[in-house]
């Protein structure tokens, strides 16, 4: 349970057994009712989220300026909310027990997958991220997305629970049937994964597609300057320049250079010019993408009172909109915005209310939330179309699906996970991005401020020596193959979930009928 919502880099196969204790308790002891199942599922889900995302406490304190008690209460609410699919799953399993028809592995997989899909998403992290670095298993994501991997993992966990139950009750037939079913499921999933990876690697050897060289800068900019380091204060631009000039050879022959999401960096500011970063980029002659804020003034807009972190003064502004944006800086050209973030982070970049009602984002008040972009913002880099994402957005496959549908060849993510002060957060975020690469068979480059950056191949494998460690400043580069393929998931999306709906409805209807027959027999 402790590893349920954390990537298991060293033993990803453990994802096939993490849910088995819960499923066994719900369906094999014969005493679990609706209320007990509800509470067991909720406790299991909430505690799993708590152990896997404890680092959100640091983020709320550093990013949102909340007190410790406020952060703790907020996190408790988030963990309870994220555990709700497991709670409903436990309640339904308890109901099935009451009807004398314990839930089977396929029903468990269908029901829990549907509940995870139907839950309004605040933080789009599935527990499937535990298997994110198991390339052989996650290749099925190109058939039905990350949720299809989730479905197969829950199915495998249910079969493991059945195997254990058969051993404990000494039922040889039940044990043999479950063990054979589990072996067939794993053989099919892993067999598909091996074949798919071999096929894509064969296409790369035969150059059935195109290649692009991408470099990424990890500057390791401090999220907050303490009193010791404020004396030697450097701008974000100067720190990026320091990281860049250490490895110019990794950048000089690149087709594209990425900088991470940095809240204080602005390619149109005087600090950018003074730091010499623009001059260095002009010398290297490499097109670059970097993050910044785009503010659109308006004379008729309400006055916004904004607290500046540098001098703690109140600034009055009249703004029509404010965006978290990606800027393109081509040699000899001005720095221009090319993409606006479409899904702001709830609570820190947008309010809880506006997250569910995006048409009502801005209200006159003391805080100006981020506005939302409206299109994928594909960028031409030579003959390639590059789709940018900003941080949190890598958890939403629908964004990548739209960009790939418009011809996107490469996905890039500019992120800053330094707020969390934890390498576990960075690896979890990277795990989310890995699924986007496999789902659409597009390489993905994740440029991060403090760690968890990587060049991800279309197979979901990390390109050699590109996984950046936590807390270091460095530059990475890799040549990435862009296959000319269209996946089933890109074309059909979640249409396969209708099969899960039919499985759930059929089993619940059968349980209802059996319950009625049992009542009539007793009468």
Automatic annotation (TrEMBL):
Coiled coil: none annotated. Keywords: Acyltransferase, Cell membrane, Membrane, Transferase, Transmembrane, Transmembrane helix. It is a multi-pass membrane protein. Residues 212-482 form the CN hydrolase domain. The keyword Acyltransferase applies. It is found in: Cell membrane. PANTHER family: APOLIPOPROTEIN N-ACYLTRANSFERASE (PTHR38686:SF1). Belongs to the CN hydrolase family. Apolipoprotein N-acyltransferase subfamily. Catalyzes the phospholipid dependent N-acylation of the N-terminal cysteine of apolipoprotein, the last step in lipoprotein maturation. This is Apolipoprotein N-acyltransferase. It comes from Desulfobotulus pelophilus. The gene is lnt.
């Amino acid at each position: 349970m402790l590893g349920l919502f954390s990537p298991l880099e060293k033993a990803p196969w453990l994802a096939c057994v993490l849910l088995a204790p819960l499923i066994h308790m719900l369906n094999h002891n014969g005493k679990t009712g609706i209320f007990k199942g509800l509470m067991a599922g909720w406790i299991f889900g909430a505690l799993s989220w708590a152990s896997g995302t404890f680092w959100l406490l640091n983020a709320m304190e550093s990013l949102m300026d909340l007190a410790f008690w406020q952060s703790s209460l907020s996190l408790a609410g988030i963990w309870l909310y994220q555990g709700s699919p497991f709670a409903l799953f436990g309640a339904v399993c308890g109901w099935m027990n009451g009807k004398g028809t314990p839930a089977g592995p396929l029903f468990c997989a269908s029901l829990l997958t549907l509940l995870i899909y139907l839950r309004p998403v605040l933080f789009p992290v599935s527990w499937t991220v535990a298997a994110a670095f198991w390339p052989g298993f996650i290749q099925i994501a190109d058939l039905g997305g990350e949720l299809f991997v989730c479905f197969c993992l829950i199915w495998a966990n249910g079969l493991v629970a059945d195997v254990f139950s058969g051993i404990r009750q000494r039922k040889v037939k039940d044990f043999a049937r479950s063990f054979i079913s589990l072996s067939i499921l794993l053989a099919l999933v892993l067999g598909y994964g091996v074949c798919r990876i071999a096929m894509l690697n064969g296409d790369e050897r035969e150059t059935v597609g195109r290649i692009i060289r991408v470099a990424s800068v990890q500057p390791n900019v401090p999220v907050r300057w303490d009193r010791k380091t404020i004396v030697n204060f450097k701008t974000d631009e100067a720190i990026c320049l320091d990281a860049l000039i250490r490895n110019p050879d990794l950048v000089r022959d690149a087709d594209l250079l990425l900088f991470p999401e940095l809240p204080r960096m602005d390619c149109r500011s005087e600090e950018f010019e003074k730091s010499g970063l623009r001059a260095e980029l002009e010398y290297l002659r490499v097109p670059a993408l970097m993050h910044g804020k785009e503010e659109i003034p308006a004379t008729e807009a309400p006055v916004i009172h904004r607290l500046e972190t540098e001098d703690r003064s109140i600034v009055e502004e009249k703004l029509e909109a404010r965006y978290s944006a990606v800027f393109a800086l081509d040699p000899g050209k001005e720095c221009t915005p090319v993409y606006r973030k479409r899904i702001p982070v709830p609570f820190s970049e947008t309010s809880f209310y506006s997250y569910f009602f995006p048409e009502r984002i801005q209200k006159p008040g003391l805080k100006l939330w981020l506005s939302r972009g409206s299109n994928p913002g594909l960028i031409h880099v030579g003959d390639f179309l590059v789709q940018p994402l900003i941080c949190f957005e890598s958890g939403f496959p629908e964004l990548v699906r739209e960009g790939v549908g418009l011809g996107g060849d490469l996905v890039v993510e500019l992120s800053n996970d330094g707020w969390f002060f934890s390498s576990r957060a960075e690896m979890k975020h990277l795990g989310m991005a890995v699924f986007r690469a496999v789902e659409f068979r597009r390489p993905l480059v994740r440029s991060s401020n403090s760690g968890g950056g990587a060049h991800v191949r279309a197979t979901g494998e990390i390109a050699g020596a590109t996984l950046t460690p936590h807390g270091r400043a460095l530059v990475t580069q890799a040549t990435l193959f862009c296959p000319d393929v269209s996946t089933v998931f890109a074309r059909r999306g979640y249409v396969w979930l209708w099969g899960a709906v039919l499985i759930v409805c059929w089993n619940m209807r059968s349980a209802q009928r059996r319950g009625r027959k049992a009542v009539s027999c007793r009468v």
